[in-house]
Amino acid sequence: QVQLVESGGGSVQAGGSLRLSCAGSGGTFGRYVMGWFRQAPGKEREFVAVISTSGGHTAYADSVKGRFTISRDNAKNTVYLQMISLKPDDTAVYYCAAGPYVSRVSHTYDHWGQGTQVTVSS
Hints:
With 122 residues, this protein is mainly β. The protein has strands at 3-7, 10-13, 18-25, 33-39, 46-51, 58-60, 68-73, 78-83, 92-99, 111-112, 116-121. The mean pLDDT is 97.
């Protein structure tokens, strides 16, 4: 029902920052829980962050806590991932996802974007 498109990826040196955006269309954006996941080559897709429908609750993977911030602007149908103090281990394709409830498990999400590449050099 909802289509998602990520943007904002790119290449950055270790210690740098990036801001990812995910724009939704074709549905009522404010009714979806939104999550960010990432997948590095040879590794399984892993949870990064999630935000509730109204933005009142957020949760993060331990590996990014204190460095990444998830937020949303329902009036703009957009969810963001602000990333600071980036590390080479953050290199991955980052995906946004929409689902019915707050979860850290990828299979609970119903809609996915096609991903945006983030590359962090040492």
